[in-house]
Design a protein that fits this description.
about 190 residues; mainly alpha; 2 domains; about 80% helix; elongated; membrane; transmembrane helix; YciB
């Protein structure tokens, strides 16, 4: 159920976009593209999904809360101003914020990533610092990549990139950390 609540809204956004991307709608004398209408539906959907996730688990991560806030702000601006650029900027801001937070922690000699993920990934102190550095640079690279894609490519290309490209990049990033997990893992080896 948790996975459905986390992945479901993004999957529904993608499906809705595919169904409505070629259409425009007139509402109250203003024309809206399918992208704008799907964004208008996505904002309350992510809010309800996040609320249900909180009810199910009893807590939300800072990342989930920040994502919700940015979706509401940038999704709201997209619909209100009838301008899809705001929603396309959202991933850039999320990645910049996360990269900056991790960078500030690194400058203080701390791994803020460890505070969030220590239960999921057992690493020693050096491993956490290396992983935090890598995540910091990875988030900053994703921010730059999102900017390049949405500013130079079609909305179709951006939606595909956002739905599949970023997901694949995160998956690949974790796979490439296998050696770090082996060298710095603290789990007992049986």
């Amino acid at each position: 159920m948790k996975s459905v609540l986390e992945i479901g809204p993004v999957a529904l956004f993608f499906i809705g976009y595919l169904l409505l991307r070629e259409r425009t709608f007139e509402i109250g004398g203003t024309e809206y593209t399918g992208f704008i209408l799907i964004t208008a539906g996505f904002v309350p959907l992510i809010a309800v999904s996040t609320f249900l996730l909180w009810r199910l688990t009893g807590h939300l991560s800072k990342m989930q809360i920040m994502t919700l806030v940015l979706v509401v702000i940038f999704g709201g601006l997209t619909v209100w101003l009838n301008d899809e650029r705001f929603f396309k900027m959202k991933p850039t801001l999320i990645y910049l914020i996360f990269g900056a937070i991790l960078g500030v922690g690194l400058l203080q000699g701390k791994s803020y990533l460890r505070m969030v993920m220590s239960e999921m990934i057992p690493l020693d102190e050096a491993g956490w610092m290396k992983l935090t550095q890598r995540f910091c640079f990875f988030f900053l690279a994703l921010a730059v990549l999102n900017e390049i894609v949405w500013r130079t490519m079609s909305t179709d290309a951006w939606v595909n990139f956002k739905t599949f490209g970023l997901t694949a990049a995160i998956f690949l990033f974790f796979i490439l950390q296998g050696r770090l997990f082996q060298e710095h893992g603290t789990q007992s080896k049986d």
